[in-house]
Amino acid sequence: MIRSSDVNLHQAFPQKNHIGRIHALFDDRVTIIIMTTTNALSLEQLQAQISHLEEQVADLQDSRKDQLSIAVVSGDLDKVLAAMVISIAAAAMDTQVKLFFSFWSLSALRDPQKSPKGKDFMSKMFGMMLPKGNKKLKLSKLNMAGMGPKIIGHLMKKQNVMSLQTMFQEAGELGIEIIICEMSMGLMGFKKEEFIDYPHLSYAGAATFVTDAGESAIQLFI
Predict the structure, then answer these.
(1) What is the pTM of this model?
(2) Residue 219: how many other CB atoms lie within 10 Å
(3) How many other CB atoms are found less than 10 A from the CB of residue 198?
(4) CA proximity to 80, closest of 131, 146, 155
(5) Distances 50 to 43, 44, 55, 56, 64 between C-alpha atoms, Å
(6) Which of 16, 111, 116, 162 could make a disulfide contact with 166, Cβ separation 3.0–4.6 Å?
(7) Given a cut of 60, is residue 18 above it in pLDDT?
């Protein structure tokens, strides 16, 4: 009596075993072909995406102007000085510069010789509490009851650095634009009549600055 365990099925049915091997080899080759085709398509798609991204970057670079946009919010002497130094340096390199003065920085643009009329009580209070002109600005650190700005002024003069007043004059000659935030001006009770006489002074909202900043190669917030 022959038991099934004593029979080698591959020897008993050699034709079926050969056919099985052919099927297995065929499946392997089909798999290799599919993987190769998929990889080729993936490389082509990746290359196409890279080319598309390169075109977008080039378009973005071309759309940016050689322009510097600075949002000046701080009313501290050292920070306003920094904004003016950077602006003058950029303008000297033929870069278009736009300064958007808002909130506390508006004090730097007040003319101490001007006293507009028709202000309400709150507007007058703001005017009294805030510095009137760039000569009255305080330092963000080491103000020392007003001694700090005087020391800085002395050191600037000793090192042949332009004063803040001279920087504004230089900025005007270089064509640097100064834009005053209309919302801040209204909130703080300032009027157009009390600001300095600057050749490139204008008034606009935050949306204008956002638009200009979006087109600028450099944006700063001080």
Answers:
(1) 0.71
(2) 16
(3) 17
(4) 131
(5) 10, 10, 9, 10, 21
(6) 162
(7) no
